[in-house]
Every structure is written in C-alpha cells, then in structure tokens.
Design goal:
With about 375 residues, the chain is of the alpha/beta class. Helix content is about 35%, strand content about 20%.
C-alpha cells in the first residue's frame, strides 16, 4: 500500500475545503493510505477535518480591519517552534509527500531531499497569470513559504498556461434555485461589527453573515448572523442569489461553479488576493471593490452580473493521476481538464436555474 503525507495550510477555510474534496477522491482507492497534516491555526479551531491527521502550529499572517498587520504577523508567529517542527518531521515513513501551501512539510521535504507535489492556487503564480501588488517581500513569500518540487497550480482560467481548473466542490450538496434577495456574507478578515453596521444601511435583501466571533442571531430582520460552520455555510451558499466576500480563491470558485454572483474586496497587502481581484476584473467574473461602502453594494444587488463556469471534478482527476503514477505531463492533464470547460453569463440566476443561459467555451 502506498502511503501519502498530505499537508494543508489551514489558515483559510478554502484550503480545508479543497483538502476535503481531495480526501473524498483519494478515499476511493484501496491502494493508498493518506495521513493529513494541518497547520496555520490553533488545533482547537480546526473544524470539518477528518480523524486521521497530525497538527503543527506552522506559520500564518495576522490581519486587522481588512489589512495584513505585519507587526502582529511577526510577533504572533513562533519561528523557533516552526524550525523545531520542520527538523523533527521525519518523512521516511511515506512514499509520497503532497503540499497545499503548508510550510512545515514543504521545508522538511526540502531539507531531507524528498520530492514534493504541490496542489493549490498559490502554485499558479509560478506561471504567467494576472499578478498585481507584488514586491520583493511578497514575491519571496510566494516562492519560499512552501516550496515544492512540482506544482499543480489551480486558477479560474488557464491563461494559456499549464495550470488546472479549480477544485470547486460543494461537499456533496447540489446547487439549488436561488432564493431572491438572499445573500451570504463571509468577510473573516474584516472587523465584524463594521460589516454588520455596513449591512444595516442596505435594505431590500437578507444577509446571512458568517464570521469569527459571531453567534446565531436572527432577530435583526434582514441580517442573520451565524458562527463559522462548514455544513451550515454550504447549506446557505447553494441557494444564495449572491455572495459578498474577500478575494480568496476557493469560495469564489464554488460561486462560479454554481453561477452565483460575487461582490469582493481583496485583503489589503495580500498579494494573492490583489492578484485574484485583477484576474476577476480581466475575466469579468465578479464585481471588485477597493473599499466597502453602501452604495456600490446596492448597485451590485440591483445590477450585478453572474457567471457560471462548468468546471469538471478536478479533484477526482488529480487523485486518479496520482494513483496511476503521474504518467501524463501536467500540460497534458491541464489540456484534458480545460477541454470540457464552458462559461455562461446571465444577469439573473433565477432565469439561469430554469435553463435560460447562453454559453461559450472558456478559452
């Protein structure tokens, strides 16, 4: 039996969602056994992960009011513990090491000379894709935070590069007809009280707000708060008319798969999110804001255009590629997956649910 160690950067829920999709795909093969390693958030705050996992403190970044706080990032990370974890992780028990931007595994593999396969959005930035907001420090971060031997980069479009479509998975749920006026809000890096005060100024829609420190509270009329919950969030997501979020990768991928319109603002100082915003603008896949204020949110609710992209089950194809010994090149794998991708645009998802879409290949 082939043993795999799979590391996941758990700072963002998107990495965990992608890992869960890969876990289900890999579980279909009796010839492999996967051990998961999560880092980047306290173990007590991990949710929605399987039972067979290891945990390390890892490294993460601190935010304050929708912006990366460099001072807190430096002071809250324990570099000594990180180095100790890297040197103590013996990889000799595993036949294959996979990394979703998880630095403990990546650096342990680098020091021990173990080839590492990277699967994640960050590895797409090794290619010629939209990239903005970068400087010497951010460039080094993307290159050195979790280095791998071979990276499978994921993105919303191929940009004529050997990258793959996103792993967009709804946790076994299916898209439902949109409930008119229902909007899911997920802004974990913003001040939650600011988010609520902003939404109180916008009527004519019901907002389901998920965020750290929030509890279930329905008595405010058009604003309903929810604690972080993988299951509850997906249940609200699949029948939402729109989503308001920061510009991470995985949630927007799920929205594109469903044809749910997106309003997003990148986290200030976070080059990945700034670059994602540039890609969304270039593709016309979402409405991107530079700052939060009521009027553009009202405009988007009224006039925002949604896009549906028919991404295939990328996680299942990658799992099979891994189990079969990675015989095809990454370029061949990418070509197979993108050949089935089409995009459709419509300003009304309710009409789209009835089949009123005009499609074209996302080429």
């Amino acid at each position: 039996m082939k043993k795999i160690l799979y590391g996941v950067q758990a700072t963002g829920n998107g990495h965990i969602a992608r890992a869960n999709a890969m876990a289900r795909a890999l579980s279909g093969f009796d010839s492999i056994e996967v051990t998961w390693l999560y880092s980047g958030r306290p173990e007590s705050e991990l949710f929605g992960v399987g039972e067979n996992y290891q945990w390390r403190r890892g490294m993460t970044f601190a935010t304050d009011g929708g912006r990366i706080n460099l001072l807190r990032t430096v002071t809250t990370n324990n570099v000594v513990q990180f180095v100790r974890d890297v040197y103590r992780l013996d990889l000799s028990a595993w036949d294959l090491v996979i990394c979703d931007f998880e630095p403990v595994i990546a650096w342990a593999a680098r020091l021990q000379g173990v080839p590492t396969l990277g699967i994640g959005h960050q590895y797409a930035f090794q290619y010629d894709v939209p990239y903005e907001g970068g400087n010497l420090l951010s460039n080094l971060f993307l290159q050195k935070f979790a280095p791998v031997t071979q990276g499978l980069g994921l993105h919303w479009h191929h940009f004529n590069q050997a990258i793959l479509p996103p792993i967009a998975d709804l946790d076994g749920q299916s898209r439902q007809p949109a409930k008119q006026g229902k909007y899911v809000v997920y802004l974990p890096f913003e001040d939650q009280q600011f988010v609520l005060s902003l939404l109180r100024q916008i009527r004519g829609a019901t907002f389901y707000v998920y965020g750290p420190g929030l509890s279930r509270f329905d008595s405010e009329g058009h604003i309903q708060t929810r604690p972080l919950s993988r299951v509850g969030f997906k249940q609200d997501l699949v029948d939402a008319e729109g989503v308001i979020c920061n510009t991470g990768f995985e949630l927007i991928s799920e929205c594109l798969l469903m044809g749910t319109k997106v309003l997003t603002k990148p986290l200030a100082g976070q080059v990945e999110q700034i670059s994602n915003a540039a890609a969304l603008r270039q593709l016309g896949y979402a409405t991107v804001l530079d700052r939060w204020s009521p009027e553009p949110i009202r405009d988007w609710i009224r006039d925002g255009v949604n896009v549906q992209v028919s991404y295939p089950k990328v996680h299942e194809r990658i799992a099979r590629w891994i189990v079969e010994g990675q015989r095809e090149s990454v370029a061949e794998l990418a070509g197979q997956l993108w050949s089935s991708v089409h995009e459709v645009r419509n300003s009304d998802r309710t009409a789209a649910d009835a089949g009123d879409w005009t499609g074209r290949r996302a080429g």
